[in-house]
Design goal:
With 254 residues, the protein is α/β, with parallel strands linked by helices. Helix content is 35%, strand content 24%. Strands 6-7-8-3-9-10 form a 6-stranded mixed sheet, sandwiched between helices. Strands 2-1-4-5 form a 4-stranded antiparallel sheet. The radius of gyration is 19 Å and the shape is globular. It binds adenosine-5'-triphosphate. The site of adenosine-5'-triphosphate has 12 residues, from strand 2 and helix 1.
């Protein structure tokens, strides 16, 4: 008799995963193997930082996992969806409806108010805002009195907090943050990182962040280290000291 192997329960499946992911830019003598067989999973309701030396493939990995770039081979899985097999039309829909983005440069629309910026992805997806979640995000990000302001009337820290609210307002399966504190002073940066960490703890949000800053990575539950397009380390409950030490070891071994 054949034994049926039960499928893994949904909650145990990684929110996002790369399976033997390869990305080659260009061809022939000038080809660059930016990802060289990366296999890694990012659990639900966990805050993971991706770190590694410049050129190690951090942005490429994030872009492939977010459907912003296509891998050469392997799988980029969001829930059960392999993004490497989807059309541009489907990828646009996936990015709009299932992923939240926070970029270093905020990327707010200058002609819209903070509130309009926060609600724009929901509007584009034809979905109604969850007013309770909206209220919670705005209040805990300290934006209540800033909702009618345009980005030019906000500080960098406030603009990034609007971008964070925008990323979370649709309850996406994952928030990808690319150097979210890169343009912020240390206090504003800490506010954004604390909020991201709380959104994982309190809202069960999954967050994957690329950063160069060991201090920022220490807010995460886990740090995945890349070197030369491969996974080169994995730290649970990282501290500033353990992250700095791991990065130092990578630099020495290069
Ligand atoms: N569009 C592209 N065309 C050709 N090569 C590219 C392209 N984008 C990235 N690369 C190369 O792929 C490799 C990985 O780049 P990637 O930007 O993913 O690294 P990174 O770890 O994010 O670097 P950094 O920390 O400097 O931002 C590098 O060698 C880079 O030069």
């Amino acid at each position: 008799m054949q034994t049926q192997i039960p499928a893994p329960p949904q909650e145990r499946m990684a929110a996002v995963a790369a399976v033997d992911l390869v990305k080659v830019y260009g061809s022939g003598d000038t080809a660059v193997r930016a990802l060289d067989g990366v296999t890694v999973g990012f659990d639900r309701a966990q805050f993971t930082a991706i770190m590694g030396p410049s050129g190690s493939g951090k942005s490429t990995l994030m872009h492939c996992l977010a459907g912003l770039d296509t891998a050469t081979s392997g799988q980029a899985l969001l829930g059960g969806t392999d993004l490497t097999r989807q059309s541009d039309r489907v990828l646009t829909k996936v990015r709009r409806e299932r992923i939240g983005f926070v970029f270093q440069s905020f990327n707010l629309l200058p002609q819209l108010t903070a509130e309009q910026n926060i609600l724009l992805p929901l509007e584009l997806a034809g979905r109604k805002a969850d007013r309770h979640l909206f209220g919670h995000l705005v209040e805990s990000l300290g934006l209540t009195s800033r909702l009618s302001h345009r980005p030019s009337e906000l500080s960098g820290g406030q603009q990034q907090r609007v971008a964070v609210a925008r990323a979370l307002a649709s309850r996406p399966e994952v928030v990808f943050a690319d150097e979210p504190t890169g343009n912020l002073d240390s206090r504003s940066g800490a506010e954004v990182l604390l909020f991201l960490r709380n959104s994982v703890r309190e809202l069960g949000q999954t967050v994957v962040m690329v950063t160069h800053d060991p201090g920022a990575a220490a807010y995460a539950d886990r740090v995945v280290l890349l070197a030369d397009g491969r996974v080169a380390g994995d730290l649970d409950q990282p501290s500033l000291a353990s992250v700095a030490e791991a990065l130092q070891a990578l630099a020495v071994n290069r």
